[in-house]
């Protein structure tokens, strides 16, 4: 008798009988079980609202990386191609949930949620363009934020006109902080491909870079002219045809994420231009970590330090203060 592989077994257990795919809803029992039994998540049992947020975030992350068609219907083929089954086994065996970097890390959830909370100033669980422009210390250009809100790269699940919901933000932050991942590359490619013809042309690159150039001039920094940038981008990517760049070209280069930073993230562009030695050292020390892993680690430390300072000034050691619980 043929034994089924683990992915097929998991797929059959979770799937609704009348469907040929998995939905986000199908993963909720898995997360409920994990939250009820995992020693690394026990401390959340007194705050059910955060259990819910954690579970939601994990499911969004699973679909971001695994559901490559982006239609919310996770097929058996996608499940087998991804690394979710390995991650689930890792979570099962590892007592420290934060060592399970794929999907399940509590620290990663904490960073995503705090970043959302910092931008969502009126705490209505929605973010508009003006909120998002403040992301990463005003790192992004207006043009790229406009493009995200055009919903061409990805349709928002938020039902409110002109607003991005929490799920939409999770997709954004994973794309922004892990630009070299496949879903990240695809997201930003669709943003830059203004006419949707599947190639990035000189005009499209220039449209986004113009604002970077203007910002450099405003900050009295030596501007790097577009002609020079275009040569640099062609060198970095090495496209099959030098008159345009395809998604295939980008996926074949290790420097694709940096190309997007050059076009619309000034802070990361500057760090790239100066070859920040701190970031280079980090990469050498832990080559297996993704850009996202490194970002989440740095941010978690920063957020923990801020919280320690607040606790000291308030004389309180509560994990969450009341303001953080406000949206529920």
TrEMBL record:
GO terms for cellular component: protein phosphatase type 2A complex. Keywords: Calcium, Metal-binding. Gene3D superfamilies: 1.10.238.220, EF-hand. GO terms for molecular function: calcium ion binding; protein phosphatase regulator activity. Signal peptide: none annotated. Residues 180-215 form the EF-hand domain. InterPro entries: EF-hand-dom_pair (IPR011992), EF-hand_13 (IPR041534), EF_Hand_1_Ca_BS (IPR018247), EF_hand_dom (IPR002048). CDD domains: PPP2R3A_B-like. Pfam families: EF-hand_13, EF-hand_7. This is EF-hand domain-containing protein. It comes from Punica granatum (Pomegranate).
